[in-house]
Design goal:
Length: about 150
């Protein structure tokens, strides 16, 4: 088994494919692809009451695009989020973000009782996309929404 793996890794075809994938041109093209994917999600996210507060790009191998979005916990409607998710099931980026929002919406009543009024969603698009939801107090939520 290890011999087969070694043969694949050391073959000229595998090395050529790896070199091509790691080339600066491929990284730039991937960054453009990630940006297109993110831009396609923006109308959906804005319709859900989220605003982009900042965005950053990391050029490297692999490239990465990161964005932070803020919104109110009150606007999170689990049923509506699930409907939007089902409409966009072919878009993995949108599905990932909506799953995180659906989870946050399921805790909405408990979160409000603890003094949390807003959410910040940090999205990283790259080789391994990720979404992180942060809960914001009333004061932090007001500042973040004003900044947007």
């Amino acid at each position: 088994m290890l011999d087969k793996f070694r043969d694949i890794v050391t073959s000229g075809v595998a090395l050529d494919t790896l070199k091509e994938a790691l080339s600066p041109g491929a990284a730039i093209e991937k960054a453009h692809e990630l940006l297109r994917d993110f831009n396609e999600t923006l109308p959906t996210l804005k319709a859900l009451g989220l605003s982009v507060t900042d965005m950053s790009f990391r050029m490297g191998i692999p490239p990465e695009i990161a964005a932070s979005l803020v919104g109110s916990i009150e606007t999170l409607d689990g049923a509506a989020l699930k409907g939007v998710r089902d409409k966009h099931k072919d878009n993995q980026v949108v599905t990932l973000m909506l799953e995180a929002l659906i989870l946050a919406s399921s805790f909405k009543s408990q979160l409000h009782g603890l003094g949390f009024a807003g959410i910040r969603m940090d999205v990283r698009l790259g080789l391994l996309p990720s979404v992180q939801i942060s809960l914001l107090t009333q004061a932090a939520s007001s500042q973040s929404i004003l900044a947007a």
